[in-house]
Amino acid sequence: AKQQGRSTYQWYSQEFNEEASYRVALRNDLQDAIDQEQLSVYYQPLVDARTGKTRNIEALVRWQHPTRGLISPGDFIPLAEDTGQIIALGEWVLRQACRDMVHLHSRGFRYCSVSVNVSPVQLRKEGFIHTVTDALKASGLRPESLELEVVESAVLLDTDLVINTLHAIRELGVHIAIDDFGTGFSSLSYIKLLPANKIKIDHSFIKDVIENRSDAAITQGVISMAHHLGLEVVAEGVETEAHATYLRKNQCDLLQGFAFARPMPFDDLLTFLNNQVSA
Ligand code: C2E
Ligand code: CA
Ligand code: CA
Ligand code: CA
């Protein structure tokens, strides 16, 4: 038993070291990624539940690593948050998304707005509001065409600072969506404090919404609460036509998921929107 204990320890320890050195390598590479244009922004349409037309587009960062291939944001965003690199990365995504949206508008899709994910680390950084105004000014995008996605838990630390920043963002005319709603373990009373326009129901509730009574109850409850608060509701992770039908029937406003489109490069988004118009 003793021997087994030791080998288990060695195994864990080796795995831990590999994990640690992977993170150190990624951290160094991430700086190159930001400097050398290895990052790109993909776009996923959010469609109006009634008309099926794209109204909003979420910007999702991608990292094409020279040797490791495509790395998912789920792997490098938390790392970038730990190191502070999320500040530069997030600003790059915001600027790129604003520029691309101006391009999209010039192609006739003025009714589309863009949603950019903002890390709690960015929100807590003094001067974030200037980053937003600079990105708008540099691109020429109307503030009303920009939405920032914020997770509920962003307000748990530095509540006053974050709430003030969010109010300043709203005063610019920029919209705010609460992302991954229902997963943050935060008190519902934060909803009152957050100057939001929209709630995005996390895909973990949507996945089994048709067969699971708890998920259905939560989804219907969130939609009803949001509407009473004057907020729009998005369902994330809408993977099937059955999901979409269910959510339409339950008055969800916007649908996002593989049932409609996957995140795609900007050129493919243009094609997607053109096809939608001519369909
Ligand atoms: P998120 O903000 O919740 O973004 C939605 C995620 O769900 C995306 O994963 C998207 O590809 C995925 N998704 C969309 N439709 C479906 C579906 O029908 N089924 C399933 N199973 N998944 C679907 P992605 O692109 O890998 O991004 C993961 C997370 O990384 C994002 O989750 C967000 O938290 C973070 N992220 C991505 N880009 C950025 C960014 O520019 N800045 C920050 N701070 N975070 C980002
Ligand atoms: Ca999001
Ligand atoms: Ca989300
Ligand atoms: Ca998520």
TrEMBL record:
| Signal peptide start and end residues | none
Which residues does the UniProt record annotate as the domain EAL?
23-277
| Lineage start | Bacteria, Pseudomonadati, Pseudomonadota, Gammaproteobacteria, Pseudomonadales
Which stretch of the intact protein is present? Answer: 540 to 818 of 957
Organism name: Marinobacter azerbaijanicus
- What protein does this entry describe? EAL domain-containing protein
